[in-house]
Amino acid sequence: MSKHSELRLDLALVADQIFEGSRVLDLGCGEGALLEHLMATRRCRGTGVEIDAEAVLVAIRRGVPVIERDIDVALADIADDSYDTVVLSRTLQTMLRPEYVLENMARVAERMVVSVPNFGYYPNRLRLLAGRMPISKEIPYAWYNSPNLRFTTLTDLEDLFAQLGLIIDRRYTYTQSGRRLRMYGRVPNLLAGAAVYVLRPGR
Q1: How many domains does the chain have?
Q2: pLDDT digits over 132-176, tens only?
Q3: Is position 133 within any domain?
Q4: Residue 137 within any structural domain of the chain
Q5: Residue 193: which domain range?
Protein backbone atom coordinates (compact mmCIF):
# COMPACT_ATOMS: atom_id res chain seq x y z
CA MET A 1 0.00 0.00 0.00
CA SER A 2 1.30 3.47 -0.89
CA LYS A 3 2.16 5.80 1.95
CA HIS A 4 -0.30 8.25 0.36
CA SER A 5 -3.06 5.75 -0.39
CA GLU A 6 -5.46 7.36 2.09
CA LEU A 7 -5.00 10.84 0.65
CA ARG A 8 -6.64 12.30 -2.43
CA LEU A 9 -4.29 13.21 -5.26
CA ASP A 10 -3.67 16.87 -4.51
CA LEU A 11 -3.23 16.24 -0.77
CA ALA A 12 -0.61 13.56 -1.48
CA LEU A 13 1.27 16.07 -3.61
CA VAL A 14 0.90 18.71 -0.88
CA ALA A 15 2.20 16.26 1.72
CA ASP A 16 5.33 15.69 -0.37
CA GLN A 17 6.14 19.41 -0.08
CA ILE A 18 6.17 19.42 3.74
CA PHE A 19 9.54 19.02 5.47
CA GLU A 20 9.83 16.53 8.30
CA GLY A 21 9.25 18.02 11.73
CA SER A 22 7.55 21.15 10.37
CA ARG A 23 4.98 23.25 12.18
CA VAL A 24 2.01 23.18 9.78
CA LEU A 25 -1.12 25.32 9.61
CA ASP A 26 -3.81 23.75 7.40
CA LEU A 27 -6.47 26.27 6.40
CA GLY A 28 -9.77 24.66 5.46
CA CYS A 29 -8.47 21.34 6.77
CA GLY A 30 -11.79 19.50 6.36
CA GLU A 31 -11.75 16.24 8.29
CA GLY A 32 -8.02 16.52 9.04
CA ALA A 33 -6.71 13.83 6.68
CA LEU A 34 -3.61 15.78 5.65
CA LEU A 35 -2.57 16.77 9.18
CA GLU A 36 -3.20 13.26 10.49
CA HIS A 37 -0.93 11.92 7.74
CA LEU A 38 1.81 14.49 8.39
CA MET A 39 1.74 13.90 12.13
CA ALA A 40 1.98 10.13 11.64
CA THR A 41 4.58 9.99 8.86
CA ARG A 42 6.58 13.24 9.04
CA ARG A 43 6.63 13.97 12.79
CA CYS A 44 4.97 17.30 12.06
CA ARG A 45 3.08 19.41 14.56
CA GLY A 46 -0.01 20.97 13.15
CA THR A 47 -3.17 22.97 13.59
CA GLY A 48 -6.19 22.96 11.34
CA VAL A 49 -8.74 25.69 10.73
CA GLU A 50 -12.19 24.55 9.62
CA ILE A 51 -15.63 26.16 9.72
CA ASP A 52 -17.73 23.01 9.16
CA ALA A 53 -18.70 21.64 12.58
CA GLU A 54 -19.15 18.03 11.42
CA ALA A 55 -15.73 18.00 9.74
CA VAL A 56 -14.19 19.46 12.90
CA LEU A 57 -15.61 16.58 14.97
CA VAL A 58 -14.12 14.02 12.58
CA ALA A 59 -10.73 15.75 12.74
CA ILE A 60 -10.81 15.82 16.54
CA ARG A 61 -11.59 12.10 16.64
CA ARG A 62 -8.49 11.61 14.48
CA GLY A 63 -6.43 13.41 17.09
CA VAL A 64 -5.90 16.50 14.95
CA PRO A 65 -5.90 19.90 16.73
CA VAL A 66 -8.52 22.06 15.02
CA ILE A 67 -9.81 25.60 15.43
CA GLU A 68 -13.48 25.88 14.44
CA ARG A 69 -13.46 29.34 12.89
CA ASP A 70 -13.70 31.20 9.64
CA ILE A 71 -10.27 31.39 7.97
CA ASP A 72 -10.31 35.19 7.71
CA VAL A 73 -10.96 35.57 11.43
CA ALA A 74 -8.54 32.86 12.51
CA LEU A 75 -5.66 34.30 10.45
CA ALA A 76 -6.05 37.71 12.08
CA ASP A 77 -5.31 36.14 15.48
CA ILE A 78 -2.17 34.21 14.43
CA ALA A 79 1.19 35.83 15.17
CA ASP A 80 3.84 36.44 12.53
CA ASP A 81 6.07 33.46 11.67
CA SER A 82 4.14 31.08 13.94
CA TYR A 83 4.45 28.18 11.46
CA ASP A 84 6.96 26.76 9.01
CA THR A 85 4.38 25.93 6.33
CA VAL A 86 0.79 27.01 5.77
CA VAL A 87 -1.46 24.95 3.48
CA LEU A 88 -4.54 26.08 1.57
CA SER A 89 -5.88 23.14 -0.41
CA ARG A 90 -8.81 23.64 -2.79
CA THR A 91 -10.06 26.46 -0.59
CA LEU A 92 -8.82 29.72 -2.13
CA GLN A 93 -11.71 29.78 -4.60
CA THR A 94 -14.20 29.78 -1.70
CA MET A 95 -12.71 32.87 -0.05
CA LEU A 96 -14.40 36.27 -0.08
CA ARG A 97 -10.98 37.98 0.10
CA PRO A 98 -8.38 35.66 -1.46
CA GLU A 99 -5.73 38.39 -1.56
CA TYR A 100 -6.15 39.02 2.18
CA VAL A 101 -5.82 35.30 2.90
CA LEU A 102 -2.66 34.99 0.80
CA GLU A 103 -1.10 38.08 2.40
CA ASN A 104 -1.70 36.66 5.86
CA MET A 105 -0.44 33.23 4.89
CA ALA A 106 2.83 34.93 3.90
CA ARG A 107 2.88 36.66 7.27
CA VAL A 108 2.43 33.57 9.45
CA ALA A 109 4.76 31.14 7.61
CA GLU A 110 7.87 31.15 5.45
CA ARG A 111 6.44 28.55 3.03
CA MET A 112 2.99 28.32 1.50
CA VAL A 113 1.42 25.38 -0.34
CA VAL A 114 -1.70 26.24 -2.34
CA SER A 115 -3.77 23.90 -4.52
CA VAL A 116 -6.50 25.16 -6.86
CA PRO A 117 -8.82 23.95 -9.63
CA ASN A 118 -8.12 25.60 -12.97
CA PHE A 119 -11.14 27.38 -14.43
CA GLY A 120 -9.13 27.88 -17.64
CA TYR A 121 -9.00 24.11 -18.33
CA TYR A 122 -10.11 23.66 -21.97
CA PRO A 123 -13.27 21.55 -21.29
CA ASN A 124 -14.43 24.36 -18.98
CA ARG A 125 -13.88 26.86 -21.80
CA LEU A 126 -15.80 24.66 -24.25
CA ARG A 127 -18.71 24.33 -21.84
CA LEU A 128 -18.84 28.11 -21.49
CA LEU A 129 -18.83 28.46 -25.28
CA ALA A 130 -21.80 26.09 -25.34
CA GLY A 131 -23.62 28.45 -22.98
CA ARG A 132 -23.23 26.37 -19.82
CA MET A 133 -21.33 26.89 -16.56
CA PRO A 134 -18.46 24.38 -16.21
CA ILE A 135 -18.95 21.20 -14.19
CA SER A 136 -15.99 18.85 -13.90
CA LYS A 137 -14.14 16.56 -11.51
CA GLU A 138 -12.28 19.56 -10.10
CA ILE A 139 -15.34 21.86 -10.17
CA PRO A 140 -18.14 19.37 -9.39
CA TYR A 141 -20.92 21.76 -8.42
CA ALA A 142 -23.83 23.36 -10.25
CA TRP A 143 -23.83 27.16 -10.32
CA TYR A 144 -26.59 27.37 -7.69
CA ASN A 145 -25.07 25.12 -5.01
CA SER A 146 -21.36 25.76 -5.43
CA PRO A 147 -19.22 26.87 -2.46
CA ASN A 148 -16.88 28.48 -4.99
CA LEU A 149 -17.03 32.26 -5.02
CA ARG A 150 -13.95 32.98 -7.16
CA PHE A 151 -13.17 31.29 -10.45
CA THR A 152 -9.58 31.73 -11.57
CA THR A 153 -7.32 30.49 -14.32
CA LEU A 154 -3.73 29.61 -13.48
CA THR A 155 -2.55 32.68 -15.40
CA ASP A 156 -4.77 35.01 -13.38
CA LEU A 157 -3.73 33.35 -10.13
CA GLU A 158 -0.04 33.69 -10.93
CA ASP A 159 -0.61 37.36 -11.73
CA LEU A 160 -2.09 37.75 -8.23
CA PHE A 161 0.90 35.97 -6.68
CA ALA A 162 3.22 38.44 -8.44
CA GLN A 163 1.09 41.40 -7.37
CA LEU A 164 1.36 40.27 -3.72
CA GLY A 165 5.12 39.72 -3.98
CA LEU A 166 4.87 35.93 -3.64
CA ILE A 167 7.57 33.86 -5.31
CA ILE A 168 6.65 30.56 -6.97
CA ASP A 169 9.27 27.98 -6.00
CA ARG A 170 7.42 25.07 -7.62
CA ARG A 171 4.32 24.53 -9.69
CA TYR A 172 2.80 21.09 -10.24
CA THR A 173 0.00 20.72 -12.78
CA TYR A 174 -2.06 17.66 -13.56
CA THR A 175 -4.99 16.46 -15.63
CA GLN A 176 -8.35 15.54 -14.14
CA SER A 177 -7.36 11.87 -14.30
CA GLY A 178 -4.39 12.63 -12.04
CA ARG A 179 -1.62 12.49 -14.65
CA ARG A 180 1.19 14.96 -14.00
CA LEU A 181 1.83 17.41 -16.82
CA ARG A 182 5.51 17.97 -17.60
CA MET A 183 4.83 21.31 -19.19
CA TYR A 184 5.96 24.86 -18.53
CA GLY A 185 4.89 28.37 -19.41
CA ARG A 186 1.27 29.12 -20.28
CA VAL A 187 0.32 25.76 -21.86
CA PRO A 188 -0.87 24.15 -18.58
CA ASN A 189 -3.37 27.01 -18.23
CA LEU A 190 -5.23 25.27 -21.07
CA LEU A 191 -4.50 21.60 -20.34
CA ALA A 192 -4.33 21.34 -16.52
CA GLY A 193 -7.40 20.52 -14.47
CA ALA A 194 -5.71 21.75 -11.30
CA ALA A 195 -2.38 22.86 -9.86
CA VAL A 196 -0.37 22.82 -6.65
CA TYR A 197 1.95 25.76 -5.90
CA VAL A 198 4.81 26.05 -3.43
CA LEU A 199 5.30 29.73 -2.60
CA ARG A 200 7.40 31.94 -0.37
CA PRO A 201 7.14 35.60 0.55
CA GLY A 202 9.48 37.87 -1.38
CA ARG A 203 10.88 39.44 1.76
Answers
A1: 1
A2: 776 777 777 776 766 666 788 899 999 999 999 999 999 998 877
A3: no
A4: no
A5: 9-118+148-201
CATH number of 89's domain: 3.40.50.150
DSSP assignment of the chain, as one string? --TTTTS-HHHHHHHTTSPTT-EEEEET-TTSHHHHHHHHHS--EEEEE---HHHHHHHHHTT--EE-S-HHHHHHTSPTT-EEEEEEES-GGG-S-HHHHHHHHHHHEEEEEEEEE-TTSHHHHHHHHTT-----SSS-S-TTT--------HHHHHHHHHHTTEEEEEEEEE-TTSPEE---TTTHHHH-SEEEEEEEE--
Selected residue with higher pLDDT from 130 and 56: 56
